[in-house]
Structure formats: C-alpha cells, structure tokens
Amino acid sequence: MRLLGIPHIERLVGLLSGVFLFFLGQGAVLLVVPLQLAANHASHALISLAGSSYFIGVLLGAYFHDRVIRSAGATKAYALFAALVSCAALSLLLLSDPIAWPASRFVHGWAAAGVFLSVESWLQIAASNKARGRLFALYTTLSLTALGLGQLLVNLYGASADQTIILSAVLIALSIAPVAYSPMGAQDTLRASRAPSWRVVKHAPIGAISSVAAGLGTGAFWAIGPLFATASDMSPPTVAAFTANITFGAVLFVVVFGRISDAFDRARVLAAVAAAGSVASIAIIAAFSSGPALVVCAIIQGGVIFALHPLSVAYAASHPFPGEDWLDVTRGQLLLNYVGSGLGPLLAGGVMAVEGRLGYFEFSAVMLACLTLGILFLNAHRKRATLKTPDRTQ
C-alpha cells in the first residue's frame, strides 16, 4: 500500500491515528490558554510566560525523555507521556488563579516532549531517505489539520468554558488506544546511545538553524498570534476561525514543500521557503494588515513556519554521523526546535509590546530573512569545503 508514494504506510495507521487525536486535543488547549488569560485581563508578560513555559518544558523533556523511550520502547513511552499530558490539561481547572497557569503549562510541555520524541523517532525508523520528506509532510499535515479542528472546538462551549479543557483532555487520553494497538517493531528496540545531543549543530548546521527558526516561529504563533487577532478587534470565535484558517491553509504548503524537498536540494528548498515567509510578513506590515489579503498572507507565513520543522528534520536525517541512531537525530532536532519555541513568545511579545499588533509580523519578517541568509551562507560554505576535500578513493 502506498500513499503519496510512501511504502508500507499501512504499518503506521495506528500511530498516525493516535497523532491526529492527540493534536486535536492539543489545538483546543493551545488556543484556550491565551484567550482565557486575555479574558481575565492578564498582562502580555504573563501570557508570554505561559507560552514560553510550555516550550521550556518541552525543551527539558526532550533532553531527558530519550532514556525512557530506550528503556520502555516508543509505544509504551507514548502511552505514558500522553496520559501525563491529559492530566496536565485537566490541572488547569484546579488552578483558580491564572498566575499559576505557567507552572501547569510547563508540566504539559515536559510530558508532550515525550510524545513528540516517541512519534518522530518512530517515523524516522519507518522512513527511507527518498520518502522521508513526504512522510514527515504527512505527519505534519495530520498534526496541523487536527490542530486547526481543535481550535474550532473552542466554539462548541466557548473559550472560558471548563468543558473545552475536559474535551481536550479526553481526546489526548483517547489517542493512546490506536498507538497501543500498533504492532511492536524497531521503534521498541532502540539501543543505548551516548551521542551528544548538540552534535547536529556541527554536523548539519543548516538543519540546526532551521530547527531553531521553526521553534521561534511556532512558539510565537501559538502564544502571540491570538493576541494579534484580539488586538485587531476580533471576537473569540473569529480568533479561532482566523488561527484555524492559517493552520488549515498551511497544510497545502507543507505537503508541497515536502514533495519538493525529496526531489531537490533540501538546503535550497529551505532557503526559498524561509524567503517566501519573510516576504509574506513584510506584505502584511506594508499593505495588508486587515481584510482577506491579511488572511492570504498570514496563511503563506504560517505555511512557512509549520513547514520548517519537517524540512529541517529531513535535512538533518539525510546527513547522518557515525554512532548515531534515529532517536539521536530526533532528539537533537527537537531540542533545537524548542530552544527557539521557548524564546519565540518572549521575543515576539517584546516586539509587539513596543511596536503594537504588527510587531508579531515584524518579528517574523526579520527572523525568516536572517534564516534565509544563514542557509545560503552555510550552503555555499559546505559546497566550497566539499570541493576542497581530496578524493581518497582514487
């Protein structure tokens, strides 16, 4: 069976079904937190702290959780960490003072890191290099679709209703069932490894800086994007529709970029994608800060932000180094991604506090432009180094 040219995709149906349910619940929580904090007149600093706390939790979790996955296997590790994520979401209902929410978001992120690490290392093992871009594009497509639908779930009960958080926790817990039913395989027999987590920075610097940039962008989008929408006088249902439209629209770009990256030089694809996102952000700042044109440009910008992580993972995986396994690759990329994610809300929130609502897109424009230049410089340096390396086979 082949889907998008990916061989043996039927072996991953259980995993991908669980991923869809997990991100369906995640989408609701990610939107409810900043909206409820804003409704309670929380400061931009507290909202940014809540967003950064989640991503800092993911960062620390990604550093430590590989030991659990190597010991228990990816399937059991997924069940463990998804259950903890569900509990962390429910804990928001027990914290009456929103000032304590950053602590809950930290725990949520710490447990979610185990889910991401389990899933992405599983996918790395299952994918061939020729189909890796498409497989991760499919994974990201399912994730984004579920995140978009999850945001729309907010409209069922309202952003301030307890039922929304309960529903998200139920969906996250339910995601364990199809994953647990998946057959055991190589993902459950990962060997011990001592490969340094940051080795990818030296060995695949283009993948490294792209992962950091992806984290900066997604962290800012989830924590600060809703603030841009509310500052633009959108009602909570309209905010949900706005962010969901960006998420759904980004799916098309992720699929297209994933197919292109399997056919062309991934470094050049990454540079072109980042440049497109910077141009879209500049267009919003210069002329399209409202109306349908805003949505179109925001979808392009969002498509770039969400495509960067799977493209950077595919790039790093195509440049393996001795002594590593796929969990090492996944762990290194996730750590870099969530360094950016922890900083993204703070940096974008700071720019927005100074420049106003368009500060979010000003941050995005500068960050993506710097990424484009960085990729072009590193790619040119890599090619020069390759030309200078003597051929020892002759």
Give a brief description.
By secondary structure, the chain is mainly alpha-helical.
Essential attributes:
Growth Hormone, Chain: A, globular, 16 helices, two-stranded antiparallel sheet, mainly alpha, 2 strands, 394 residues
Descriptive notes:
The chain is mostly helical and 394 residues long. It has helices at 13-39, 44-64, 66-72, 74-91, 101-126, 132-152, 154-157, 162-174, 176-180, 199-203, 205-231, 236-263, 266-286, 292-317, 326-355, 359-388, and strands at residues 2-3, 6-7. It has one domain: MFS general substrate transporter like domains (Growth Hormone, Chain: A), CATH 1.20.1250.20. Strands 1-2 form a two-stranded antiparallel sheet. Helices cover 78% and strands 1% of the residues. A hairpin with a 2-residue loop joins strand 1 (2-3) and strand 2.
Distance between the termini: 43 Å
Structural class of the helix and strand makeup? mainly alpha
* Main sheet attributes: strand count, strand direction, barrel closure: 2 strands, antiparallel
Which architecture does the CATH hierarchy give at level 2? Up-down Bundle
Q: What multimeric state do the chains show?
A: single chain
Low-confidence runs of at least 5 consecutive residues: none
Spatial ordering of strands, largest sheet: 1-2
- Spell out the CATH superfamily: MFS general substrate transporter like domains
Total number of distinct structural domains: 1
Overall geometry comes to: globular
Per DSSP, what share of the residues sits in E-state strands of 2 or more residues? under 5%
Task: Calculate the mean pLDDT score and round it.
Answer: 80
Number of discrete helical segments = 16
CATH topology name? Growth Hormone, Chain: A
